[in-house]
Amino acid sequence: MTSTGRERVLARIRAAIGEAGSPGEEAPDGIPRTYLSAHRSEDPAALLDLLHENLVDYRAVVHRTTEHELPATVARLLAEHGSRTVAVPADLPPGWLALAVAGAAVQAVVDDGALTAAQLDSVDSVLTGCALAVAETGTIVLDAGAAQGRRLLTLVPDHHICVIRAPGQIVASLPRALPLLDPVRPQTWISGPSATSDIELDRVEGVHGPRTLEVVLVTGSRGRPGPSGATRLSPGRRGRGPHGPE
Amino acid sequence: MSGTSGTSGTSGTSGGAFLGMPSFPEAAAVSTQDRQLRANLSHATRTIREKRARAVAELADWAELRAAGKAIKDHTLRHLDHYLLQLEAAVTTAGGTVHWAADAAEANRIVADLVLATGEREVVKVKSMATQEIGLNEALAAEGITAYETDLAELIVQLGDDRPSHILVPAIHRNRREIREIFAERMADWGRPAPEGLTDSPAQLAEAARLHLREKFLRAKVAVSGANFMVAETGTLVVVESEGNGRMCLTLPQTLISVVGIEKVVPSWRDLEVFLQTLPRSSTAERMNPYTSLWTGTSDGDGPSAFHLVLLDNGRTTALADQVGRQALRCIRCSACLNVCPVYERAGGHAYGSVYPGPIGAILTPQLRGTASEIDASLPYASSLCGACYEVCPVAIDIPEVLVHLRERVAGQGGHRLERAAVKAAGFVLDHPGVLAAGERAAAKARRLLPRRLPGPGGAWTDSRDLPDLPTEPFRDWWQKNRPQQDS
Amino acid sequence: MRAALFATCVNDAVYPSTAIATVRLLERLGVEVDFPPGQTCCGQPQFNTGYRRETEPMVRRMARAFEGYEYVVAPSGSCAAMVRDNYPRIGAMAQAERRGGELAEAAGSLAPRMYELTEFLTDVLGVEDVGAYFPHSVTYHPSCHGLRLLGLGDRPLRLLRAVQGLELTELPGAEECCGFGGTFAVKNPAVSTAMGDDKVRSALGTGARVLCGGDNSCLMHLGGLLHRQSAPLRPLHIAEILAATRDEPWQGEARSEATRPDRPARPGSAA
Q: For residues B99 and B258, what is the distance between their CA atoms, to the nearest angstrom?
């Protein structure tokens, strides 16, 4: 049935479009890409402020800190949230949680790839890094790369603390972000906490995803944004990420 | 609202729920009198309308993004076979399985068989227009499979045994008090009951939905989704959402089945930079929606281990064959045209008799289903042609143009003989200025005899509106008397 | 300067006062006005109801009637938009149906010469103050086709603001359709009336005594609702406001109010 469906659909399409044929190898004809690559100043300090502003606008709680102060900030945020347990990816930089777990006030739940959704449902918080962040839209991109873990890790717990390194991981816009991302990696783009507009078309925060999103902007870091640990290859020839099929 | 039609909304396939619907004018004659519905729709659409305008105004290059979006979609449609085959190859390489469905029955059969093969009898669903269009839930129910809608608005519709009335916000016709009642009365029938003492605060209603659905997410083995975009070069699917129910469905189950219209394919990864800028601002008036999920086939240890993509035609190739109507396939389902439409705001979504209401529905439904039924033949006329929909459309679909084009199709079929005869008679008069002038003079003479309320079809005007007073003479007579020297 | 008046069928038969005002206004501004008698209707009602082929003779007739005029002026945004927006489309369709390029040529020759009255005043004549006097409170409804298809923008408002004595009040939700929509008004009377009622409510809320517009078809619909409700608001075409001066104030002459004793008193009837 499937193969006949395939032939019927393709035949109907060809009958409908006539002799258009293959677009060939050249660029798609006549697509005017005259839109902007970025809408605002790409000065790193301005991008940091813009990202901060847009994250706050969509009800993320934003903190700024330095690399040195990061462990203390994380410990404070977990304590303030009253968290006893925090899920983390296996490759989280060990220093991030050092202070939080030192006094045994908080217990780290490391995802070794076997944690179930039900187990994560009883964890208070999750702490991750990200692949990059888009200032203009206040968007954090997770691509299951370094310090991010599997998708369910950042989905099931109700409190997500996400660390972004500035200026290294911040880009201005979507047109700046997409070339840096690897389509093969499963991605989650996050812009503020879970929300809905389903009641009277008015935005209400907090449905199924984490209802509290805390973003820690770590200033003074170096490095370029992009898929964690991977060099971008042209489409179709990309290497699989660490979680891809071998 | 649901009372605008006599149908229960839970039968049949391929839009079968809407067969036997009254025509748009008949349905609207009832719904426009529903004060609660009018108040709910007016409040919701006006709120979002202003927000959208602000969100769009933030981008200085909106016109350029709109032009690029239109061009990408047009290009894709012109080479649709090529890009679908490229997509199929990329998805297959990435570990997915691609199925093709020529119509609703084929798509439903494919999905049902895939679910049955897993041994499961429950699926969780991400909001998807395509699966509503084909009546998937009803088809699965016939096979003993229960489909749980997980989008908040879809949940409201499902629990309320209601029909969707909006593309983005299917329960837009319900206000918070009505939603509270539905949750309090019906949640227990489907799983975890609503919390005691539930109020109508949107935050509490959202919390009730979170608790009700979480147990379903945690035990689900199979999910069914649609997709907003499919990238041909990479095989990537994209789901744009707000609540996180999409992430739950796309991540937690072992098997994921995505049913997607063939027109949702875009050629390249880069094309997303256009649509992911225009879609959120057009639909929820946000710079970016809270969650966007992108996945390419399957990934070991992360997300479903089995991925099936069902490519759906179901009338799309018929629209594709129409040079004017084809542009409706550019639609990215943002629903900006619904929110800005004065007809939609007053008639409500149910009057359109389709899962696709509003201006886009008025041009999409008659192309997907044909114009044989009374409701489908009436849809191209469900517009004052004010053009507000075209103005806000992020892919520049000239909806008024397509409406008029489809009216031509409807006028050419049976049932319009009297109208056609009248148009022909008028055409004769209007091609003979002397006859026209004589008619105008006769009308001017008889103007005192004109009744206040007209009988028959003219009553459609005079039931609510007085007729204008006719002048003592037509303009052309004034001209002849007052500017005679200039006439030839 | 010479211009042809496209009066439109509605104005010719039902609202001659608007066409007369257009003639007087243009003549006052030094334009030599012609009324080619071969004109009838642009064909919009037929075209928009689905009778494209039946509209074609009207495209030809219009092109013939206005042949040789550099400027054709219509006191109607909707009819001007029909010629400018849809005539080329009708011509292109005929060509696509392999029926020759004659219709496309006729449509293409007329379309760029067709002007809506207010854009002719501001863009061609380059005036905003037309020397008018109209001592009444006015609110303005921009009809959809002028607004969206012709892109008239604030041209009508600029003209109204320059009128002496005129008090202009903003119409809330001005850009929303009034619900006329040609045959929509009778094919979907319930929605049409609901839209019109909301527009009338907004207009009455301004406290103005005159509801001004650039399309008498829309004003006929709104006026019909207002009259049925005996509301103290009078629809009036912008040409009639712009034609009024201190020497020749607006009379409402051709509206034959005398025949309707129940017509609410028109504003400034003592003027």
A: 10
Tell me whether A221 touches chain B (CB under 8 Å).
no
Number of domains in chain B: 2
Q: Which of A110-119, B43-52, C250-259, C262-271 has the lowest mean pLDDT?
A: C262-271
Side chain identity at residue B235, one-letter code: G
A 168-197: CB under 8 A from B: 174-175, 177-179, 183-197
The H-or-E segment that residue A216 falls in is strand A212-221
Structure tokens belonging to residue C47:
């075209």
What tokens were used for A206?
A: 């907090």
Residue B31, token pair as written in the block: 């719904």
Q: Is the dihedral of CA B188, B193, B196, B199 positive or negative?
A: negative
Q: Where are the domains of chain A?
A: 42-221
Contact C181 B412 (CB under 8 A): no
Local structure of C100: helix, strand or coil? coil
Asked if domains C2-124 and C137-259 share a fold, the reply is: yes
* For helices B62-78 and B272-283, angle between their N-to-C axes, nearest 10 degrees: 120
Evaluate whether chains C and B are touching (3 or more beta carbon pairs less than 8 Å apart).
yes
How many CA within 13 A on the CB side of residue B262?
A: 36
Q: Last residue of some domain: B376, B396, B415?
A: B415
> B115 with B164, same domain?
yes
- The CATH number of residue B293's host domain is 3.40.50.10420
* Final residue in a domain of this structure, among B415, B442, B463: B415
Say if C193 is an interface residue toward chain B (CB within 8 Å).
yes
Q: Which CATH class is domain A42-221?
A: alpha beta
Burial class (CB in 10 A: 0-12, 13-18, 19+), B430: buried
Asked whether the beta carbons of B167 and B45 are under 8 A apart, the reply is no
The continuous run of DSSP H or E covering A214 comes out as strand A212-221
What is the maximum span of chain A, computed from C-alpha positions, in angstroms? Answer: 72
Cβ–Cβ gap B476/C58 under 8 Å:
no
Instruction: Give residue-wise pLDDT tens across range C206-231.
Output: 999 999 999 999 999 999 999 999 99
Q: Please list, in sequence order, all residues whose beta carbon lies within 8 angstroms of the beta carbon of residue C206, skipping any fewer than 6 positions away.
A: C137, C139, C169, C170, C171, C172
Residue B225 CA to residue C72 CA, distance in Å, equals 56
SS3 content of chain B, % helix, strand, coil (to 5): 55, 10, 35
Each residue's pLDDT tens digit, A57-68? 999 999 999 999
Residues of chain A with pLDDT under 50: 1-2, 25-26, 228-246
**Cβ pair A34, B274 in contact under 8 A:** no
Q: Which residues of A touch B175 (CB under 8 A)?
A: 200
pLDDT confidence of residue A45: 96
In B, which residues are within 8 Å of A128 by CB distance? none
Q: Which fold has domain C2-124?
A: Rossmann fold (3.40.50)
Residue B253 and residue B150 in one domain:
yes
Kindly compute the dihedral angle of the four CA atoms of residues B304, B308, B309, B312, in this order, to the nearest 10 degrees: -130
Q: Are residues B357 and B440 in the same domain?
A: no
B130: its two tokens: 């395509």
Q: Do C184 and B420 make contact, defined as CB atoms within 8 angstroms?
A: no
CATH 1.20.1300 fits C137-259, yes or no: no
Q: How many CB pairs lie under 8 A apart between chains A and B? A: 289
Please answer whether residues A100 and A61 qualify as being in contact, where contact means their C-beta atoms are separated by less than 8 angstroms: no
| Pick among B152, B157, B291 to test the A interface (most A CBs inside 10 A) | B291
> Do residues B411 and B425 share a domain?
no
Confidence of residue B450 (pLDDT cuts 50, 70, 90): confident
Give per-residue pLDDT as tens, B343-384: 999 999 999 999 999 999 999 999 999 999 999 999 999 999
Contact assessment for residue B238 and residue A188, using Cβ atoms and an 8 Å cutoff = no
Whether omega before A167 lies within 30 degrees of 0, making that bond cis, reads yes
Question: What's the domain range around B35?
Answer: 1-415
